[in-house]
Description:
Blueprint: E1 19-21, H1 30-39, E2 44-51, H2 52-57, H3 60-63, E3 73-78, H4 82-94, E4 99-104, H5 109-113, H6 124-137, E5 144-149, H7 158-170, E6 175-179, H8 201-210, E7 216-219, H9 225-232, E8 237-240, H10 242-246, H11 254-257, H12 268-286, H13 289-293, H14 306-320, H15 328-348
Parallel strand pairs: 1-2, 1-8, 2-3, 3-4, 4-5, 5-6, 6-7, 7-8
The site of flavin mononucleotide has 23 residues, from strand 2 and helix 10.
Amino acid sequence: MAASAHGFAPHVRCPPPAVSLAPMMDRTDIHFRVFLRCISRRTLLYTEMVTAAAVLHGKRPRLLARHDSESPVALQLGGDDPAMLAEAAAVGVEHGFDEINLNVGCPSDRVQSGNFGACLMLQPERVAACVTAMRAAVAAPVPVTVKHRIGVDEFDDYDHMRRFVDVVAEAGADRFSVHARKAWLSGLSPKQNRTIPPLRPEEIYRLKRERPDLPIEINGGIRDLDAAKEHLRHVDAVMIGRAAWDIPYLFAAVDHECFGAPDQAPSRLQVLERYLHYAVPALAACGRPVPVLRPVLNLYAGEPGNRAFKRTMSELCQALARPNAPPVAASVLAAAAATEGIRARASAAPRLPVNQS
Ligand SMILES: Cc1cc2nc3c(=O)[nH]c(=O)nc-3n(C[C@H](O)[C@H](O)[C@H](O)COP(=O)(O)O)c2cc1C
C-alpha cells in the first residue's frame, strides 16, 4: 500500500465521535461517566488518567472499574515507557475499554518528574515509540489516540506542534485531541495552566486544514453547544471538560445537535431515573454516598431551584451515612420533583415589562 500524501504510514483510522467528555482526575470516575451516559448515549467518555505502572502493579478492579452501559469509553494512560504502556494498553482492552489514549498534556510536577504528560511534547520520537508499541499491543479496530497541547514553554509555535503530530501520526496514532493552550512546565500550577495561557484554536483549525486525513479533536474552554458546533465546522470533534462537570445537562442535546441522531433529549427526571438504576446498587456495594451521588449535584445548574436541590442532595449524603438512612431513590426523586415545581412556578410567573419604574 502506498503512503498517504503526507507520508503517513498506510493506516485505517477510525472516524472520531463528534463530542467527547475530557479525562479529568477526581472527576471522570465510573460514577460520573455512567451519569453522563444517562444524558448522552453517543458522547465518547474518557477515564481519569491512570499511569501504566499503576495498571501493571496496582489494584485493577478499582483503577479499571467500568460499567457495561458506558461504552464507548476510552482509557487514558500516563507513562513514557513503550513496553509498559503497551502492556497496560492490552490490559485496558481486556477490561473492555473501547479506546486507549496517551496523556501528553498534563503539566503537573508529579507527572513531569516521571517524564510523562506535557513534557513529552519535547520528545516526539519517544511518544512515537510509545504509540508504535501500544498500537502493536492493541488489535484494530480499538483506536490508540493522543491528547496533547499546542506547545510547551518556548516551544509553542505552530511548526513545532505540526512536527510533533507528523512524527506521532507516522507511528499510527488514530486521533489527536489538542488542548488549544500551551503549557508552562514550571511556574504555573495545573489549574493555572488551564486558564492563563490563551486559547489558540486557529492553530488547530490550520492543523486540520494541512492534515485533512488525520482525525483532529479540539479541546479547551468550550462551554456550550453553539461553541461546540462552531468548532465542528473546522475540526472533526470537540472535547469538553470543566463544563461537563459544571453544567452536565448541556450534553442532553448533543446526540441530536452534534451527532445528528434522531434521539430526543431526555428530561432531567428521566436522567435521574436512569442513573438511579445504577446508583442504588453501586451505593449498596461501595457504602460511600458522596462519590456515587456527587455527579447529580449540578443537574439543575443555571436553573431556578438549583441551590435548594444541591443542598438537599448534600443533606441526603450525610443522612445516608447514618443508621436508619432514608431510601435513596425516593429521596432523590422527591428532591427533583420539588425542583421541577420551582422551575415550573418560575417559568409561569409573569415577567415585568423591561422599562417599568
Ligand atoms: C479537575 C481536572 C482534572 C483533569 N485531569 C486530567 C487528566 O487526568 N488527563 C488529561 O489529559 N487532562 C486532564 N485535565 C484537563 C482536561 O482534560 C482538559 O484538557 C482541560 O480541562 C481543558 O478543557 P475544558 O476547558 O473543556 O475544561 C483535567 C482538568 C481538570 C479541570
